[in-house]
From TrEMBL:
Species of origin: Naumovozyma castellii
Pfam families: Aa_trans
Bilayer topology: Multi-pass membrane protein
UniProt name for this protein: Amino acid transporter transmembrane domain-containing protein
Domain Amino acid transporter transmembrane: 4-467
Main localization of the protein described in the UniProt heading: membrane
Segments forming a coiled coil: none
Subcellular location: Vacuole membrane
GO biological process assignments: regulation of sporulation
Any one Gene Ontology molecular-function term assigned to this protein's record: L-tyrosine transmembrane transporter activity
Domain of life: Eukaryota
Family assignment from sequence similarity: Belongs to the amino acid/polyamine transporter 2 family.
Entry's transmembrane regions: 12-30, 36-57, 69-99, 119-137, 149-168, 188-209, 221-244, 264-285, 384-402, 408-433, 454-478
Keywords associated with the record: Membrane, Transmembrane, Transmembrane helix, Vacuole
Length: 481
């Protein structure tokens, strides 16, 4: 598939991946944290999540063909024995959140139009299934635009009520206590810390976004990352501050529940929320399907079960009719190649490759590009639709039979979200950043050394968030009213 995505469409998709139903829990986080601490936590989440996305993008550029980068391919280069665990973390995250979206749709649509929740869950399949069958993430840009319009309406509605009721009319009778600087609830701070941190999860689609960019330069990728984090932060701050200042300590876990349910505006808002969930589901399903396919390929590699699960061979030479992909390799710039016509790359984990000229590198890039349409592994159409069918069927059956799984979803966030947002990017960055310099006998630059240290800090930050979130989930913390 030819890369055709623009910076704008990629930013739209990444914003929609990041900003979901968790947006409406941000005012509750401000209730426990206070305005100052809440803003500081949003800034912390934005910086750490943005840095994690940046590290993933930078790691992709260490490959000869960055468009082949994926969690699976980089895992196989850095920590091959742990690759299935990393994909399992992706599956847990995307499957759990996607399932919660189906359950929420079953709760919201009956309150809008009547009818049985099961009916509406099944009815959603008429929109969800066709969108989930699209192979390119960029094909979802129009649904993401509609979803973002729904988000904008909801954010402006919450802000508009604040301006009208509080700033203009001064109606504070429904508002509880406001905490500007001090922490309102110390125990609640531990609980709501994870709400804000998990709100920025979007790493699952970064590699697909990078792969589909028409111009996948690091400059363009940074525009997508910075733009998405910036726009998402505006959403979180606008809804969090204005929602909290409207209701104070009376704000509920989902701020939509604070408004008059008979209001036509809140009725429209609920419709926008349900519509947003409907269009967000395919964005989570895309990386879920890729992760499942990665596990299938890994089992095929390990147990030799299926020839279609072939992965890159360990040699560059292939026959003309051989379509076996080339191995993952570190990239060397043309200037370095010209200055060093004979470069021996002896990369960790036994991956080695001799590159003689820049022209040879270009040829290898072209061959790898032609052999990979979806990931740096085979993904035939038959398996694509089989995995799609099995996943959608299982998710819909669970959604029809499960009314609430708050504990499971909290555990998913504590493990899956932190793994793909912080721990994995940090591990990849610490292992890969600077290896392209070492491969040609040069010292790692000061900037790359700084990125490596920050990557290690990101790993510890991710582990800390994981243990804190698990502790709060299993042993206490504030609940949502």
């Amino acid at each position: 598939m030819e890369p055709t995505a623009s910076v704008t469409s990629s930013t739209v998709n990444l914003v929609k991946t990041i900003v979901g139903a968790g947006l409406f829990a941000i005012p509750f986080a401000f209730k426990n944290d206070g305005i100052l601490v809440g803003i500081l936590l949003i800034m912390l989440a934005a910086v750490t999540s943005g840095f994690g996305l940046f590290i993933l993008a930078k790691c992709s550029k260490t490959l000869i063909n960055p468009r082949n980068a994926s969690f699976f391919s980089i895992c196989m280069l850095t920590y091959p024995s742990l690759s299935p665990l990393f994909d399992l973390a992706m599956i847990v995250q995307c499957f759990g959140v996607g399932l919660s979206y189906l359950v929420l749709m079953g709760d919201i649509f009956p309150s809008l139009f009547g009818g049985n929740r099961d009916y509406w869950i099944v009815a959603s399949a008429f929109i969800v299934v066709p969108l989930c069958c699209l192979k390119k993430l960029d094909n979802l840009k129009y649904s993401s635009i509609l979803g973002n319009i729904a988000l904008i309406y909801l954010a402006l509605f919450i802000f508009g009520v604040f301006v009208k009721d509080i700033l203009i009319e001064g109606n504070t009778f429904a508002r509880g206590e406001i905490s500007w600087i001090r922490i309102y609830d110390g125990k609640g701070l531990l609980s709501t810390f994870s709400i804000i941190i998990f709100a920025y999860v979007g790493a699952m689609n970064l590699f697909s976004i990078c792969r589909e960019l028409e111009n996948d330069s690091m400059e363009n990728i940074l525009k997508v990352i910075n733009g998405s984090i910036g726009i998402s932060s505006i959403f979180f701050l606008l809804v969090g501050i204005s929602g909290y200042l409207t209701f104070g300590s009376n704000v509920q876990g989902n701020i939509i529940l604070n408004y008059d349910p008979n209001s036509i505006w809140i009725y429209l808002g609920k419709f926008c929320l349900a519509f947003m969930l409907l269009l967000s589901f395919p964005l989570l399903f895309h990386p879920l399907r890729i992760a499942v396919n990665n596990l299938v390929v890994w089992f095929g590699m390990t147990f030799g079960a299926d020839d279609t699960c072939a992965v890159p061979s360990t040699t560059q030479e292939t026959d003309e009719d051989d379509t076996t992909p080339t191995p993952i390799q570190l990239s060397i710039s043309e200037e370095e190649m010209e200055a060093n016509p004979e470069i021996e790359l002896d990369i960790e984990e036994g991956l080695s490759q001799t590159v003689t000229t820049a022209e040879d590198t270009t040829d290898v890039q072209a061959e790898v590009s032609s052999d990979h349409d979806e990931e740096d592994i085979n993904f035939p159409d038959s398996r694509f639709y089989l995995i799609t069918g099995i996943l959608l069927t299982s998710m819909y059956l669970l959604a029809l039979n499960v009314k609430s799984f708050a504990l499971v979803l909290a555990l998913v966030g504590a493990t899956g979200s932190t793994s793909i947002s912080f721990t994995l990017p940090g591990l990849f960055g610490y292992k890969l950043i600077g290896t392209d310099s070492l491969a040609i006998g040069r010292m790692i630059s000061r900037r790359d050394r700084f990125y490596k240290r920050c990557s290690l800090l990101l790993v510890w930050f991710g582990l800390g968030v994981t243990f804190l979130s698990l502790y709060v989930t299993l042993f206490g913390g504030a609940g949502t009213n």
